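Dear colleagues,

As part of the handover before I leave the project, I'm documenting each prediction I ran so the next person doesn't have to rerun anything. This entry is a single chain, and its sequence is reproduced below.
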Amino acid sequence: MNRILLLLFLLLVVPLISVGQTSLWNFSLEGQTIATPANKLPFWLRADQNGSIPLSGASVSAIASIYRGYDTARKPFIDWSTGLQVRANAGNTSNLTLIEGYIKGKMGILQIEGGRTKDMTGLVDSTLSTGAFAISGNALGIPKIGISIPDYYSLKFTNDLIAVKAAYSAGYLGDVQLIKYSTNLTNNPPGYYEENELYGRFGRPNWRLKIYAGINHHVIFDDERKVQGSNYTLNMFQTFVYAATGKTYNHYSKVGNHIGSVDLAVQYEFDKSRLFIYRQNLYDEGALAHLANIADGITGISLTNKNPGTTGFTWRKILFEQIYTVNQAGYFNSPYTKSGDENYYNNPEYKYGWSYYGVALGNPLLVTQQYTRKGFPIAPGDYFISNRVSAYHLAAMGSAFNLDVTTRFTYSINYGDFATSPEGNSLGKIHTQPIYGLFQTVNEFSWGLDVGKHLSNGYNVGVSVAGDAGSLYYNSVGAILKVKKVF
């Protein structure tokens, strides 16, 4: 998949490199030296990296990037941008990964894009958050094509009081592995992806106070005709429509694995700082429609310094975030829903749930077995072994002694999932006994420190250090030394 994307992208972009203004292009090459314990890559060296993950142990990496941005100075009615980033790792093994490869075109307020991009959806802090619920920037981007209004567009008939932005994309996952196979299925079926987003802003552009609200909806699905055979009556176009709209098929089920959030946020502009408060309310099955899992969500408050100093010690942004996914409408006294507990990111049809190449598409604090300690109870079919988490996250960006500094501190309490809880899995009012063992509550503390320095002639040097301490991951400390040249 990565090789095909890289080849197609080069065929499209290389002929265009000599076209346009040189100042819009950015070229860079980065070398990294990595030292971590074998098979123990600390959380903040691998989480929210858009799939740009080093190898564990002693290794080296090279990252090459080429980007052409939009012409923000002239702001032409028709414009285009493109980007390519490739990472090569070498150590106890080796790999080459296309981290990003896309081409975009804008005409007025509309944008059309195709390829793999770095994405985070919904109302969260885009730089310091642990990650949005649906698409967090944790895994590689799913290759897709889409159309959008990427920036808030003020509606003139409201006298600029209301602004909107929206997006629709369709993507291709490659073959997906199912938990249950049809007798007619000899190979894994091809998997597809769709996303819809609609957000609104209340408040004129020059107002200090602005209120945001919106919804994002994402779905992974496959060619059900190959799975169910003649029992499946929708053609491929109808399947895409049913998946995108969440329409019920056969009166009892939806096409694919649906996930998303309903978001609210408030922003206030002080003279010297910007306050942003947000809340993502989560849905995976149908509980949110009944407010049955309203206790779950991602809540954050960030404060940005609008005029940071250039010398000495200065702060740029501070964020506090709470992540709570423990409820899931799965308790004995939870409001009734036909779907029972939400079981976030797991799915009864798709073996690897809400992941891409085995890496969580959503918030990385909901974990798979890949990096956790061994010995936790696991229910068959649940790829995410602990999706019930209560976590607190504090992060900050600033500078000191002419160094750029970013810190992250994350404390989590992890409860497994409902299949390994005293309540057991539920479907409607029926609770299934936890026959696979009980997940004992474990705590974890993860920290990360990034320090960078801009040198002359486009050189940058930096170091990233991170560690884990607790009972969810194996205790570890690792570091990455970075040298980057921007041409």
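Residues 15-19 have pLDDT under 50 and may be disordered. Residues 2-13 form the longest helix (12 residues).

All the best with the project,
I.
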